[in-house]
Amino acid sequence: MPDRKQPSFQAVVRDDFALVDQCIREQLHSDVALVSKIGQYIIQSGGKRLRPLLVLLTANACGYNARGHNGKNHIPLAAVIEFLHTATLLHDDVVDQSDLRRGRDTANALWGNAPSILVGDFLYSRAFQMMVGLDNMRLLNVLANATNVIAEGEVMQLMNINDSSVTEAQYMEVIRCKTAMLFEASTHTAAILSGQNKKTEQALCDYGNHLGMAFQLVDDLLDYGGDAEAMGKNLGDDLAEGKPTLPLIFTLSEGKPEQKELVRQAIEEGNGLDNMETIITAVRDCGALGYTAQRAQEQAQKAITSLSVLPESPYRSAMEELANFAVARTY
């Protein structure tokens, strides 16, 4: 993928990010060589690292460092979040039979399904070992609940595959669980770590939730017209798997009869790639991409509004910038 200048919302916590990367490398160690090899491969494969970034930005926006809290627990917390996310990616790629992620071969394409699943399990268990080390029952509770909800969301999505009757409300619940929940857990745990009051804690939960929703909506939008090289994945992956994402759901509701029938067949038969260009034209012509972008923008604005509880700071500004980036990106 092409190199990009580090966005300012990442640069503001550059030093913390370096410490998170160091923590991740240390915690990936295993006496079982294949565990370390696959773990290092997937962690080093790039990605936006938005979830650990949210921990760092939120903690700093809440004054965690400035208040002289004991140690730098936001660093291992951010690493925990990244391990949880990476574990879900390893499992997702097996479930989806994906062979490309972030422009590189997936772990299951290189080593097979069984090692990928088992290393995903290792990352989950290592994350929980690190959570215990933080010695904070509220953090453990939030992350345990989030992990459970994410698993439920993945099962819900699996159940929806090849089902053309999925509604927008059902779709929104799936992405709330499978994607937005870890965004929310990132900001929620950082707020807890920083000792925020209930009002601020809830507002930061809301920020993470709305940001995660916006992010997933745009991801689903880009499956029909993003930059494949920049995204590092194949366009039309969701279409090929028969996933009823919002652009398709909207087309089924608002499209012309022939557009509806085309999309219905693509979802139910999983043959979307055979007619990809025609389907992309259909979802564009009926306004589905514009509608999805509008819904994402609404979520991003709600995220920004939630930040009003925080004092002005470079970190709050970075969180606002991140919300705008989530909907403006092309990868």
UniProtKB/TrEMBL annotation:
Asked if the keyword Repressor belongs to this entry, the reply reads: no
Q: Which top EC class is named for this enzyme in its record?
A: transferase
InterPro entries listed in its UniProt record: Isoprenoid_synthase_dom_sf (IPR008949), Polyprenyl_synt (IPR000092), Polyprenyl_synt_CS (IPR033749)
Question: Which UniProt keywords are given for this protein, alphabetically ordered?
Answer: Magnesium, Metal-binding, Transferase
Q: Provide the leader sequence positions.
A: none
EC number(s) per UniProt?
2.5.1.90
**Pfam families linked:** polyprenyl_synt
The GO terms describing molecular function are: all-trans-octaprenyl-diphosphate synthase activity
Obligatory cofactor(s): Mg(2+)
CDD domains tied to this protein: Trans_IPPS_HT
Q: What's the family? A: Belongs to the FPP/GGPP synthase family.
Tell me the PANTHER family matching this sequence: ALL TRANS-POLYPRENYL-DIPHOSPHATE SYNTHASE PDSS1, GERANYLGERANYL PYROPHOSPHATE SYNTHASE
Q: What is this protein called?
A: Octaprenyl diphosphate synthase
